[in-house]
């Protein structure tokens, strides 16, 4: 730490650590390592995916064992750090695959995660996650969707989050 | 570079530039077009495949007019390759851009893959884009979503497809 002499070096480290925690989430899901979720989310973290009610995260997170493969590819996150709190938005493209549905085994979803962060005992953890799908393509039966491929209806979380809006001067 | 203040400043520059690149998709996909203003210098050139040469202001107006015609867009960008030299920087970042129009179901999507080549300038301690060139490499899906006159596939090779000069080996 002695080398970190720049006044903004703390922000840089925080952003790096937050990005690394975010990167663990797809690994926990897609490699089916539910205990790794405990290094991503705070205890009692609140989660809402695709408009579901905001509620305490299920232990281990969503179960991907129904799929022959899943892959949640994340883009790098837009991040704002304020002391021991932070907010981020990161894009995802998530492929879900069920071979029993061949020749149309895939469903791909695009969207983003809006996360609120807290530094707890020195470690950054997500305290609140809103997952917002924007569109999907592929076979709706993979996830039991009642609608054909296309864009999802516009919802509140399709908007720019308040913390990212340009400040009116 | 000794790993002290100078090195950290370089990392901070890279972080700030990367954060500008990441706000761009949020501005256009969440339709918060005023968020484009702090990303581009006034008069910045915006040169995108398939569009006339624009500046930051005319690009913003085109976004406002055209993007509301989609039920969703998502411009997912990858992490950028960059070179920082004093108060200027060059970057290339990849994108995969989905465009969806539900009225065209059962073929509502057109997805484009390509990259943005950006020239950044730091003025008054702030990094913003001075020149953006967008290059499409391929597209898939329904050409009608964007009114493309060609079927899905690779797009014609053009100078933007080459390795940018700043990334070429000096050998």
Verbal overview:
- The complex is a heterodimer of chains A (169) and B (171).
- Chain A is mainly β and 169 residues long.
- In chain A, a hairpin with a 2-residue loop joins strand 4 and strand 5.
- In chain A, strands 1, 2, 3, 4, 5, 6, 7 and 8 form an eight-stranded mixed beta sheet that branches.
- The model of chain B has no long low-confidence stretch (mean pLDDT 95).
- In chain B, strand 4 and strand 5 form a beta hairpin.
- Chains A and B meet through helix 1, strand 5, strand 7 and strand 8 of A and helix 1, strand 3 and strand 5 of B.
- Number of β-strand runs of chain A: 8
Could you say which overall geometry of chain A the principal axes of the C-alpha atoms support? globular
Order of helices and strands of chain B: HEEHEEEEEE
Low-confidence stretches of chain A: none
Radius of gyration of chain B using CA atoms only: 17 Å
- Name the helicity range of chain A: 10-25%
**Largest chain interface and its two residue counts?**
A-B, 34 and 41 residues
Strand percent estimate of chain B: 35-45%
Q: What characterizes the major β-sheet of chain B?
A: 8 strands, mixed
Could you state the order of secondary-structure elements of chain A as H and E?
Answer: HEEEEEEEE
Q: Strand pairing plus helix content of chain B: what structural class?
A: alpha+beta
Assembly status: heterodimer
Distance between the termini of chain B: 23 Å
Strand content of chain A: 35-45%
The count of β-strands of chain B is 8
What class do helices, strands and sheet pairing of chain A give?
mainly beta
* Number of helical stretches of at least 4 residues of chain A: 1
